[in-house]
Description:
The chain is of the alpha/beta class. Helices cover 38% and strands 12% of the residues. Strand 3 and strand 4 (298-304) form a beta hairpin. Helix 3 (69-88) runs parallel beside helix 4 (137-148). The longest helix is centred in the middle third of the chain and has 28 residues, at 490-517. This is oxoglutarate dehydrogenase (succinyl-transferring).
Amino acid sequence: MKSSVSARLNADLLDEKYEQWCDDPRSVEENWSAFFEGFELGNAQSKKKGASASSGAASVPAESPAVDEHSLNFRGKCVSLVYNYRTLGHTQAQINPLQDSAPRNPRLELSQFGISEADLGREASTQFFRGGQKMKLGEMIEGLEECYSSKIGFEFMHIHNTEVRNWIRTRIENRFSDNSQANFDAAKALKWILESELFESFLGKKFLGEKRFSLEGGEGLMVLLNAILEKCPSSDVKEIEIGMAHRGRLNVLRNFLQKSLTTILYEFTPDYVPAIVAGDGDVKYHLGYEKVRELEDGEVRLSLAANPSHLEAVNAVTEGKARARQRIIGDDGVETDRKQVLPILIHGDAAFAGQGSVAEVLNLSQLPGYRTGGTVHLIVNNQIGFTTMPEDARSSAYATDVAKMIEAPILHVNGEDPKELVWAALFALEFRQKFGRDVVIDMYCYRRQGHNETDQAAFTAPHIYGKIAKKKTLGQAYKAELVETGTLSQDVADGIQSSIWDKLEEGYQTMREMEKQGDRSVFSGSTAEPQPPYSHAPVDTGLPLEQIKHIGETLTSVPEGFNLHPTLAKRFVPRRRDALEAGKGIDWAFAESLAFGGLLMEGNAVRLSGQDCRRGTFSQRHAVFYDNKTRERYFPLRNLSDDQAKFCVYNSLLSEFAVLGFDYGYSLGYPTMLTLWEAQFGDFSNGAQVIIDQFIASAESKWQTPSSLVMLLPHGYEGMGPEHSSARLERFLQLCAEDNIQVGNFTTPANYFHALRRQKKRDFRKPLIVMTPKSLLSRAEAVSDIDDFVAGTCFQEILPDDKEFENPEKVDRIVFCSGKVYYDLVQHRAENGIEDTAILRVEQLYPYHEEMVKALSSQFPNAAKYVWCQEEPKNMGAWSFINPLLMETFDTRIRYAGRKAASSPATGSKAMHKKEQKSLLDQAFNV
């Protein structure tokens, strides 16, 4: 570009640059920005202005207006200064309450822009800042400092969407001139802070040495939460779903969800016993709670998810619960667009930066099957993780940098400025409601105590904790400030404090009195869901024949003019039609669809999600048909009847942790829906082990939160190597106790059909873990007759031998197995003419149905040898779990047939696999 901007320019280039500038002034060079600004102002003055920047491209004359080049250069420098403050102002914002002043960023020094002190008196008005308001350069810098480098640091220039970015910029730059803070209620903010502060102080005095993972030093969190809550009714928010770790949880339970004070206090007493019907309970700072808060403008339902100590693991669960609630209250339509249920996730700074699950959950935020309309993330930035300082905990500048991956705006806020905290909270809620996107508030604060109340933080951070020890508490400092400025009188301020303390004392005395009297009504507000005991009683899960045929016909039909893929049209659909007509040959995927269809027509919604599950990893399901020419989608299971329930099937992101957590949360929030998560291969569930261990297997015992989630895990030894053979059945069986989960390895499509339907047909809820097959999906013998699906049929936990024995008394060996190996055993027996061995299938490994095992075995009265056969190595699979159970059933030694113990699930050699498979089959009949 030539130095003289007044020279005649190529008209096409000029139009191109102007269009670019209209969309985003930052996207063109500084001199171009200054030129176009001068052009706009010049046209406005001469009343010959063309289309404005907001209306898109306009015709720009090839010759520029006569503007002094020196002035344009200065204006260009001013524009550059504005952009740099918007981009870098947060780096010198006064956000850290442990610093007296923030270090200046040298990149924002005047010399960096070719500006001198002498220029401060020059007029520097630009439409890029406060709408072109006339001001001197010095005034502009003061305004920029006030907006971008005060008690809130803003990061938003990474957002590509111009509308979003400009909306944020306008809110930031007008926040001191648009009366947006005029209604700030200092007395209310003081009350929120003192409630939090005095609650912690009270617990510390009454229960000396007890762990409570206090919020001390981070009381500003209660300002953020309460400011959001008060604005919810006028913002169309009816419910809030909250997920958080343990720090500050008791404070949130008491002062935000308003859990009974007497209950919380009683949980600290030495003789406290959980008021639960079954299970083991959990520590008080892991428990969930629900409450409807009555506010001046309406009511808001609050729900805090129970969580383990695995910090960010609860995030996905909370998102799933939120989406389920949106579905239940009708918040997923076009008109509401998920504005009525608000997810709030409360994080620690070290965990937000360090836990990979955070990125996985952020990645859910805009995906069709997982979107919740935006989440407000509140980070309690203690500036330390346990004992680890930020420089040892992350490679990024901020703990929040991972949120930039979804272009979330980030507000770094000083946690000891209540007015700014309220503004940030209201900004976050307004942004979420307008754009349906995530927003992050990074509240800088500190931990007044160590990791817990018995930890000495000064061991590892003496300098920081020396500062903290000298600081007044936020409540006392803010109280003194309000009195000194005349905002509150001393009597009013003292009255707020004494009123809060008196309530705490009153609650404590009430608790002590109830404790003396043995009165346990203190727990009357429990949100636990006790379950009826598990039962092996059969449940009729069959369907009327006419309904099966109707569902089958719908599954094998497409709209007129729909171009189904030739392979599906010639093979997949005709195979299903033939099976329906013949009344036999119903395969695994067809049985699954029939189960879904029956539930949908009975009013039970179905949700299936996972990697590639619409088609199915093995191209078996085809829950969605795609037009071969247009890729238009058709969902047969959404076209069963006019009044059917909703069917949802989603291909997930490439994640196990977040997606399984989300679907588990969904199952909690929408208990009448059949919710299923499918792993692409069973071993992929390894990536979600925290969700399995801390939630699915133990949540009912810890928190009395039942779930009927179904996990589908492809499993079976097909010579595919160590990574895609085993779904690690042994890990699930190791978690089994107290009838907590159901674990199955089915052999027939009909039994799979009944197991799925059984999830919605009993009066108790239990997660179901299914070792789903691979080769059995298409194996000719692994099919069921239509008679196995009709009314009067049910799930069978143990299946008898299909072979008809002429002389059952001659059978001296019973081989027990589960899953795909059954068909290999049957084939081996037939090929070798073996007549003295029966094969029984344990379809449901847990809960173990001992009576049925005995009943089926009694058909062979002379059997003296009992064998367990499996494909997995001896230290894996079901052997270690089932062996003691069978030994107790038969009071004799159980023989083992299978692969030897190994460190890897399977060999990578096809030839070695075949050799091992032949060996274990031989063992089953000879060991």
